[in-house]
Input
Amino acid sequence: MEGSGGGGGDHFILVHGLGHGAWCWYKLVPMLRAAGHRVTALDMAASGVHPARMDEVPSFEDYSRPLLDAVAAAPAGERLVLVGHSLGGLNIALAMERLPRKVAAAVFLDACMPCVGRHMGVTMEEFSRRTTPDFFMDSERMVLETSEGPRAALVFGPKLLAAKLYGRSPVEDLTLATMLVRPGRQFGDDAMVKDETLLTDANYGSVKKVYVVAMEDAAFSEDMQRWMVDLSPGTEAVEIAGADHMAMFSKPRELCDVLLGIASKHD
Output
């Protein structure tokens, strides 16, 4: 989903979370464009309407390829603001490490935000430590046969979506999600995600980071979100009151205002 607003604005690149796709930004995209910014909402590999199946995506790099290609293709001098939601925080972290000079600011929306000196999977490990095995409720676990061997995947169930992710979102958006979510992988067993030397101060650490705290999230607790902020000193934290895990659905106007504020602040 690509398009532009008026000239002279920033270029927001929006990255969805586990099992979701570019569709989850449908409320936010027109708001940002109306404010004069270019906006690209991406499907990661095997997500949204991307044609691949998850068993055809062997690595986290392959999964992140649509984002890496979009950032690399941005013209010189264009101000990119990357926005990663939930698992999408790991995708934007990889893009920041690879192409830091292209990124004016990175926004971690209620997202996995890794830190320099530890592997990216530490965020998911902490989430697992803080939740009980029954957290995923009616979600379906599966094993995919990939070129790298068997890999675990997950499809969110409707009860999980309603209780943990979309608790304060309109019922229409919850219904949309039950129709569109696809199998997702956390890539916790991926060599890149386990690499403690991947993220560096010179690259990832040099990009301005803002963490948007969803205050009513039933999936990532406020404590968990602030724990990630504390891992990366210098990260700015902004709160959205009343936002569930899907802030782009539960509080779209407030989220848009936060993003516009970030863009103007880092001009």
